[in-house]
Amino acid sequence: MDEPLGLGILGCGVISATYLEALRASGQSDWRLVAVCDVDAEKARAAAGEDAAAYADLDRLLADRRVDAVVVLLPNYLHADATVRALGAGKPVLVEKPMATTLEDCDRMIAAADQAGKVLMVGMTNRFRLPFRTARARLRAGEFGSLTFIADAFNYRPAPDYRPRAWLTRPETVGGGMFTQMGIHSLDRAIWLAGAAPAWAHAVIRNVGGIWPDDTGLATLGLADGTHIQFQTDGLAMQRRNECVLHCSEATVAVTGRQMMVYRRPEPEVQTFEDNPMAQELREFAAAVRSGGPSPLDGREGRVPVAICLACYESSRAGRVVRLDEPPWSVPAPARA
Ligand SMILES: NC(=O)c1ccc[n+]([C@@H]2O[C@H](COP(=O)([O-])OP(=O)(O)OC[C@H]3O[C@@H](n4cnc5c(N)ncnc54)[C@H](O)[C@@H]3O)[C@@H](O)[C@H]2O)c1
């Protein structure tokens, strides 16, 4: 059995608790938390616990020789600089979604990983969830017939006392608004499930309620194989819904983070799952770091949903269909395997 790798966590905010829990859930056989970093010293100390070092500055974390790899859990607009610096210091990186707020930043991150020859992984969480993985495998195996379209929704209204952190209220620090922050989950899983190259997008994205820079988004994507994806974000919805529905010739398949319902005659089939997607991400990241790659979800793949989100904003702004199969968006086909 290999020694656990030394993990450094950059950013000790809300999602860091989920990662710390995932580390505990995975029994720490892959990773040992050796250092954390946050500009808020109190948060860093709390996340570090008894055994890890707490830093306020990324350079100090990167200089810590016990750190074999870094997880970047910063506000979106800070992902690129931190990732480029960590890769430049020879540390593999797992960066949270969205990969970055601009395509230029995504490209800098991809170039830094190529130059360093180190693993860069993007944490598109839904691809590590068992229900989505199972649905994709069964779709590929032909069990549902042929795919016609995917309808995906990420809807929820925050509690009345919710006060968003400042960076979540500005388009430039989020890289958009709710459509990016939540919708990117929908978009990424739908594209990954469909497995065909996106050809065009048409979107309407608005701010109706005022909490996010935008809170209401509707988009249709056309794919090169003739299938379509329709998705929505609704930050005012009283019905909480985070669901991807595959409309296929032999079945209609509704997938959530916990369940897959296969509707067909005579009876629907229900499959429920218990898993921890962050623990799965950390396991696959560890395996890639140990082997030197490839990355389970590299920068080129992580760039795809960012490009589509930005193209949807452009479509909404300009009130027109935007091509995704030519510059400046040029989204490649996702892996079909
Ligand atoms: N995959 C998911 O389901 C999921 C869920 C939530 C958040 N996220 C992503 O995780 C990231 C973090 O989100 P969050 O909700 O934890 O945000 P947050 O605002 O709660 O935490 C960010 C932390 O970064 C720290 N920070 C800011 N600038 C820093 C700097 N220069 N150096 C060191 N620390 C700095 C802040 O003090 C804060 O503690 C975002 O990219 C978000 O999109 C993903």
How would you characterize the overall build of this protein?
The chain has 337 residues and is an alpha/beta fold. 34% of the residues lie in helices and 25% in strands. The protein has helices spanning 14-25, 41-48, 58-63, 79-88, 103-116, 130-140, 171-174, 178-181, 183-194, 277-291, 299-318; strands at 5-10, 31-37, 53-55, 69-72, 93-96, 120-123, 147-155, 198-206, 216-223, 228-234, 241-248, 252-255, 259-263, 269-272, 322-323. The longest helix has 20 residues, at 299-318. Bound molecules: nicotinamide-adenine-dinucleotide. Residues 11-16, 37-40, 43, 58, 73-76, 78, 96-97, 123, 125, 165, 181 line the site of nicotinamide-adenine-dinucleotide.
Number of strands: 15
Low-pLDDT residue intervals, each spanning 5 or more residues: none
CATH H-tier superfamily of the largest domain: Dihydrodipicolinate Reductase, domain 2
CATH architecture of the largest domain: 2-Layer Sandwich
CATH topology term of the largest domain: Dihydrodipicolinate Reductase, domain 2
Quick summary:
With 337 residues, the protein is of the alpha/beta class. The chain is 34% helix and 25% strand. Helix 2 (41-48) links the parallel strand 2 (31-37) and strand 3 (53-55).
Name the descriptors.
Rossmann fold; Dihydrodipicolinate Reductase, domain 2; 337 residues; 6-stranded parallel β-sheet; alpha/beta
Task: Outline the secondary-structure elements.
Blueprint: E1 5-10, H1 14-25, E2 31-37, H2 41-48, E3 53-55, H3 58-63, E4 69-72, H4 79-88, E5 93-96, H5 103-116, E6 120-123, H6 130-140, E7 147-155, H7 171-174, H8 178-181, H9 183-194, E8 198-206, E9 216-223, E10 228-234, E11 241-248, E12 252-255, E13 259-263, E14 269-272, H10 277-291, H11 299-318, E15 322-323
Parallel strand pairs: 1-2, 1-4, 2-3, 4-5, 5-6, 7-10
Antiparallel strand pairs: 7-11, 8-9, 8-15, 9-10, 11-12, 12-13, 13-14
